[in-house]
Amino acid sequence: MKISIFIPCFINQFYPQVGSQMVELLERLGHTIDYPEGQTCCGQPAFNSGYWDESRAAAEKMLEAFADAEVVVSPSGSCGAMFKVFYNDLFKDTPQQKAAKALSDRTWELSDFLVNKLGVTDVGARFDAKITFHDGCHSLRELGIHDAPRLLLANVKGLELIEMKYPICCGFGGTFAVKYPEISAAMAEVKTDLIRETGADYVVSNDSSCLMHIQGYMDRRKINVRSLHLIEVLSKQ
Predict the structure, then answer these.
(1) DSSP states of 31-85 as a string?
(2) Domains in the chain, ordered, with CATH?
């Protein structure tokens, strides 16, 4: 299968290993990778802030970049949800509505793609550690992804998954953390307490943006728990 990959801005700038390790895994599974060079920001920051015209200008470039993609895979539930869910709202009653719907239908978050499209639950990984899993809000609520990453983790040799008492937003929310820093930090504190209660060595998620926020809070509080993107666990041998 020819897979077009969508790499969000923050992964490209801060966590490039997440993108490269996703490519390596998909190629190891026998697929051909395409990186449309015209891709840019998906428009989510402007969309979430209410600037839909500005968001649409960026999103139109993404519609063009991925127009010929057979399937689109992203290592981000958040930006993946922008393609999958919010482009349908953004382009409603516009000339690009049909193209937005077509892109939505072809887009997958990585863990969902591996498990529910390819039927892969064991990638041959090994990671001797205790981990807990953070469900990003967009991944869980907008895309309905819960079981797929856990099925993949269940087949990682040496790994022990310890669930938190309950799921809760980490407090990042993109521009929310900038507009309401005190509330954002308070939410991160609650999230971090839940993580520490598990006794895990690592917190894992399929959203690097959430992990950036969580890790930043833990570093400031000198909490000895490290964050890893799901693909970083699946790539370990």
Answers:
(1) -EEE--TT----SHHHHHTT-HHHHHHHHHHHHHHTTT-S-EEES-HHHHHIIII
(2) 2-116 (no CATH), 122-234 (3.40.50.11810)
